[in-house]
Structure formats: C-alpha cells, structure tokens
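Review session, final week

We close the course with one last complete record, chosen because it touches almost every idea we covered. It is Serine/threonine protein phosphatase, a protein from Azonexus hydrophilus with 267 residues. Go through it on your own first, then we will talk.
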Amino acid sequence: MPIAVDACAAQHQGDRKEQQDRVAILPHARKRGVALAVVADGMGGHTGGALAAEQVIHTSKNNLDHFSPTEESARWLLENSMREAHTMIKASRFMNEKDPHSTAVMLLLQPGRVTWGHCGDSRLYRFRGNKLLGRTVDHSFVEHLVAVGKITPEQALTHPNRNVLMTSLGGQDEPRFDFADTVDLQAGDSFMLCSDGVWAYFDEAEMGELLAANSARTACEKIIDLARQRAGGTGDNLSLAVIRLLEIEVPKARPPAGFVPSSGRRM
C-alpha cells in the first residue's frame, strides 16, 4: 500500500533567557516527496548561538532548493550543508566578536529512501512501531568514554562532563560528520530529530511509545510537556522534528454505472 508522511516540528524556550535552537522541516521547491528536516542547537554567548543555528537552517534550505536528486547524492547534500554552515559560522566570529557554535542533525526524505547525518550531540532516533531500530551516537566526551568502556551508558547520563562536545560546527578544528541511510521503510516507522534539551529527559522505550501512539503533532506536544515537567525549572531549549510513515487506505474502484455483477451458475 502507498505510504503517507505525517510530520511536525516544534520547540520551546525552556527556562533559558534566549531560544538558541532552530528547527525546520523544509520541502523541496520542485521535487514532490523530497523534504529535509533539520535541528540545530546553537552555543556561544548572547545571540551568538542563535545566529549559528540560524545559519545551519539557512544553508540547508539554500542547498535543498538547488538539490537535484537524479544528479547528486543525499549524503552530498547533507555534508555540503553542514560544511558550508561551519565555514559561515566560523567567518562570523570575526564580524561579531562572539564564539558561535552549533550542532546539527539532518534527515533527507525521498521516495523509498531516508538519509541522515549529524555533527555534535543533537540526535536522530529511528523506531518501527514502538521498537528502537537505532539512533545516532553523540560526538561528545561521555560517548567517547562509553565507547572505550570507561563508563556505562547509565553513568554517562549524570557525568559532570556530559555536555562537552568533541566536535561542532564553527569550531577551530574541522568538524566530524557521521551518516547513515535506509531503504527499509514501512508504515509505522518514525524518525525523531531533537536537541539535548529533549532527549535528556527520556529513555528510548518511552520515546517509542509516545511516537507510536500519537500523531506527529500530538507526540511533539506531549514530549515537550513531559520534558518541561521533568526539568523542574532548569530546562534547556527544546527542539524536535517528528516524521511518521503512515499507510494509506486506497479506495476500491467503483464499478461503471449500470454494471450488474453476474451470479455464477452451477453446471
């Protein structure tokens, strides 16, 4: 059966003085069924982080508008968008005397294929129904410690250096990117992109239940409400984009006017 897309992007300022996250779901200007979801978590002093995250969205939209799916790869689009954003954010340091940085996580949706990439600790989760199929691995100090067996994933949640990133857009060093894709898509699949102000308050099982049981819009609303409750007045900016794949019921063709089906006769 054909598959439809149910999508929603949402954010909340949390308990911060400024919203430095940016989130968008961008349709391709000319290609039906092609869209790009982006979450960027900006850092770097007053307005600096917001400008960095805004640059990620701006660069992504510009590249998507010029993207030709038949001539260019999805990975090229994602990597080029993050690389260009990195260059522009880095250049802005000399103009505004700030130290802006941003994370980025992006998902490109095309008919029959989903491709994603990220830099930093904004995440992408992939579910089938309520079952986790995988998530991105943060480019953070604690994820490195987990990978080498120094701490457990549970210890990483409360580690004092859990917010230290190993790479980001706009830093002095060349950023690190990771990519993945899938053509194994089914109705009931869902993808969630989010900043750390969201994922810090949920385990994967609860996320899966919320996404499987609700529309994209309702899931976003419930996730933000729960994160705000659990933050206890100290919550970070929250941003997320949810993409759900739904099965479309195709109506049966009506018989032509005046057509009367024959009843079979036994010989």
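Two points worth writing down before the exam:
The helical segments are 48-65, 74-96, 141-147, 153-156, 196-199, 204-213, 216-231.
The chain has one domain: 3-247.
Good luck, everyone.
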